[in-house]
Design a protein that fits this description.
Chain lengths: ~110, ~120
């Protein structure tokens, strides 16, 4: 069974630009969650999608958004990038018994 | 809101010895999951062990076991016969079983484990 796939693995963007990250969950998993990991703030929950609906949202500004498609693939978008958005962005796919399986992450650097 | 606290930023253990990582959490819910994840330098977050709050029996996965004390809201991880490959950052995580919160995990700040040969 293929794992969670995140693309791209690495990204360098300039302040003010926008970025879109992609996550393909494990086949059959309908829930996808996104997390931001930074040395200073640790792992912070961004949002969760279940069957194309946002079910939960963390405490992030509106510049952070996401969506989920009918095949459960999810994208997250960050607009008007700031230096502080530099982080590892992790996507997790949730099984029906509550286990979260993570992708390898996308390392975003904002310069 | 739930919180997860890992009070040990760093731990070290000699190869083949046993080490215990601590985790406490705070919640008003009665039905939830607790997890330990391992994140090696490759950054891939790997599930180590899972505990359902309604189960009194402590979970065990090979060399990894937990001591789950629900009343004390404590969830420690014991690694027996430590191996060099166990070196990583370990995160304790909480997830509600309430449907609307089911997709959100709350993580502790992590414990960096060093294994000495």
């Amino acid at each position: 069974k293929a794992g969670v796939t995140q693309t791209p693995r690495y990204l360098i963007k300039t302040r003010g630009q926008q970025v879109t990250l992609s996550c393909s969950p494990i086949s059959g998993h309908r829930s996808v969650s996104w997390y931001q990991q930074t040395p200073g703030q640790g792992l912070q929950f961004l949002f969760e999608y279940f069957s194309e609906t946002q079910r939960n949202k963390g405490n992030f500004p509106g510049r952070f958004s996401g969506r989920q498609f009918s095949n459960s693939r999810s994208e997250m978008n960050v607009s008007t990038l700031e230096l502080g958005d530099s982080a590892l962005y992790l996507c997790a796919s949730l099984s029906q018994v509550g286990e979260a399986f993570f992708g390898q992450g996308t390392r975003l650097t904002v310069v | 809101a739930q919180t997860v606290t890992q009070s040990q930023p760093e731990m070290s253990v000699q190869e083949a010895e046993t080490v215990t990582l601590s985790c406490t959490y705070d919640t008003s819910e009665s039905d939830y999951y607790l997890f330990w994840y391992k994140q090696p330098p490759s950054r891939q977050m790997i599930l180590v062990i899972r505990q359902e709050a309604y189960k009194q029996q402590n979970a065990t996965e090979n060399r990894f076991s937990v001591n789950f004390q629900k009343a004390a809201k404590s969830f420690s991880l014991k690694i027996s016969d430590s191996q060099l490959g166990d070196a990583a950052m370990y995160f304790c995580a909480y997830r509600s079983r309430v449907n609307t919160n089911a997709g959100k995990s709350t993580f502790g700040d992590g414990t960096t484990l060093t294994v000495k040969p």
